[in-house]
Amino acid sequence: MTSLSPGSADALLFDLGRVVLDIDFSKAIACWAGHAGCKPEAIVARYVRDSEAYRLHEVGKISDEDYFASLRASLGIAISDAQFLEGWNAIFAGEMPDIAELLPRAARQMPLYAFSNTNRPHVDHFSKEYAGLLGHFRELYLSSSIGLRKPDAAAFDHVVAAMGVPASRIVFFDDLAENIEGARARGLTAVHVTSPRDVGDALKKLGI
Question: What SUPFAM superfamilies does the entry give (predicted)?
Fold first, then answer.
């Protein structure tokens, strides 16, 4: 069980997807199906989220064109890179509830950082669309920039070192259980975000 109390943290580290920004992948599927002239269910049945190409794309090891080519092959749809990109960026469904109020309040008390597994086109998109909200973070550690991704130990170690804060004094928020486990294994205090209330509740315990 995560132990949070006033004075127990020196910095907060946030995942972006489903913690700060709402994600709806069905929007990508619907967009691609529309361009391909097929049913969304046909794409859902073939889509593998954590494929090798997906992981390589997230750490900047393959280009957007190569990733979309892998999708074209695995999904069996002959749509263009521009059409893939349109759907790829359609997944951002706005801000998570209350986060626009919580982040500035927390930022007045301690530094905020973000750590996200993401890719270059998504970074280009959300950096512009959500510039105001993301401006509350001192630094964004993005897998496609640092070449490392959660839940790998090396990724957490890199971010902790870059923040310059002891791991035990960082509270990390993420929606995926494997990332929570990965963070705890490297000494961070981690909060599993399974509903929009979880961030606010944790901040209250921290006296924020």
Answer: HAD-like
